[in-house]
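Long-time lurker, first post. I've been practising inverse folding by hand and with some scripts of my own, and I keep getting stuck on stretches where the structure tokens seem ambiguous. Below is the full token string for one chain I'm working on. Before anyone asks, I'm not after the true native sequence, just a reasonable design that respects the backbone. If someone could post their per-position residues I'd love to compare against what I wrote down in my notebook.
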């Protein structure tokens, strides 16, 4: 292929979230011209439209999980779609949807890496560690559990999506921008030896030092997956999310994060999740997310070597 082919895969559901509205995220990103902006960067862009799964019944948790059967169904569909794009040499961008969908997308990327005998690195850009389990979260919302499920700590139906349990191990993750971790979750993150670059770390060493650490050790056999939860950003610049947490990266810090990922040249797949137009103002959060994704694919102020 002469040009990198990008495949946009919509997953319009808020099945794992505590607020309705993330199901409208894929369309908001399209309205913000994600396909056109990436095409203008010289990329071939194929919009696959939206995947289909069960509707959100909006019920209370059962045995510690809300909507488990529906979450499993959505993640199976996501897994199949993302794996198919990777198998055909395309770079998939999952347009979410809430963050529970990362179970499907990252398990697909991990499966692809096993098939290609490649290493995996996941940058988890998020205000939250998402390492909860049913026993430590009262809400039962599975969008707070995807990293735990991917690492083997969750219901069997989710842990084994993709036919390999666990899909990944904690050492592949680098969590960046974290500033909200539940009390019981803190212990689990510590026991898993998860590499977490929280906002204090970013405050102390800066975004540049943080990203140098998070990107260190990758080589030509490493597939880099970025899971971009829009609540990673400070709500002052990105109000359109269901779970705002003050004190996140500002615009320039977020741009530097994306630019340094672009500079490493290893990006192989991307999630954009938790964009909630119901909380947004004139689609500004979607426009900002698209702006940052442009930087992720090489947009910069100057021509750089």
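-- Answer (accepted) --
I ran through it position by position. Result:
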């Amino acid at each position: 292929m002469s040009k990198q082919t990008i495949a946009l895969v919509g997953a319009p559901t808020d099945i794992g979230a505590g607020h309705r509205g993330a199901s409208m995220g894929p369309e908001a990103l399209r309205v913000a011209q994600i396909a056109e902006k990436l095409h203008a960067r010289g990329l071939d862009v194929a919009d696959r439209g939206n995947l289909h799964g069960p509707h959100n019944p909006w019920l209370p948790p059962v045995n510690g999980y809300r909507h488990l059967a529906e979450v499993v169904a959505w993640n199976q569909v996501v897994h199949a779609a993302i794996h198919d794009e990777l198998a055909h040499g395309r770079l998939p961008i999952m347009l979410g949807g809430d963050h529970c969908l990362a179970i499907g997308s990252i398990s697909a990327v991990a499966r692809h890496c096993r098939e290609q005998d490649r290493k995996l690195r996941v940058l988890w850009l998020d205000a939250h560690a998402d390492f909860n389990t049913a026993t430590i979260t009262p809400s039962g919302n599975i969008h707070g559990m995807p990293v735990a499920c991917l690492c083997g700590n969750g219901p069997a139906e989710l842990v084994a999506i993709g036919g390999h349990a666990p899909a990944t191990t904690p050492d592949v993750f680098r969590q960046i921008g974290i500033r909200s971790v539940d009390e019981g979750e803190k212990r689990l993150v510590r026991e898993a030896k998860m590499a977490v670059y929280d906002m204090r770390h970013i405050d102390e060493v800066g975004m540049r030092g943080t990203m140098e650490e998070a990107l260190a050790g990758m080589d030509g056999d490493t597939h880099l997956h970025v899971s971009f939860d829009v609540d990673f950003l400070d709500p002052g610049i990105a109000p359109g999310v269901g779970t705002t947490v003050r004190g996140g990266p500002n615009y320039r810090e977020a741009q530097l994060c994306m630019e340094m990922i672009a500079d490493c040249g290893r990006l192989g797949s991307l999630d954009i999740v938790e964009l909630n137009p119901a909380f947004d103002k004139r689609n500004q959060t979607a426009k900002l997310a698209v702006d940052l994704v442009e930087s992720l694919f090489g947009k910069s102020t100057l021509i750089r070597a």
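A couple of notes from the structure itself: The domain at 5-296 is CATH 3.40.800.10 (Arginase; Chain A). The chain has one domain: 5-296. Happy to go over any region you disagree with.
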